[in-house]
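Our preliminary data section would be incomplete without showing what the modeling component actually yields. Below, a chain of 127 amino acids is followed by its predicted structure, encoded as tokens that our downstream tools consume directly.
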Amino acid sequence: MKDNAENDLPQVGIVGPCTAGKSTLINRLRGRYNVVLRHIAQEHSYVQTMWQRINLPNWLVFLDVSYPVSMERKKLDWTPAEYEEQQRRLAHARQHADFYLMTDDLTPDQVAEKVAEFLAGKGIERF
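Predicted structure:
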């Protein structure tokens, strides 16, 4: 159950394929902004609109990664076809994302900075 204080805060949904940096981003930004950051595991759902149904965020951030880079980041036991399936499951979220970022050539700090710039553009300032 959500804390009552969270009910009044803007919600930022974070989606993307495995190893795109969603959890790392949330860990870097959590507690630094007056928003609730939600990891939405859309990549594992057959329901394309799951990101809207569970908790409709004020803004949706889509972090992306290519298959070769995903394999460098973490030795996943998945094939290119499985990666493409995740991309298919994420298509609706990608189309509706308020902010899209390809993370292949970015460090975790650079990803956090770019998302922080997006949040600042929405009037969300750092504590």
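The beta strands are 11-15, 36-39, 59-64, 99-102. Residues 10-120 form a domain with the Rossmann fold fold (CATH 3.40.50.300). Preliminary results of this kind motivate Aim 1 of the renewal.
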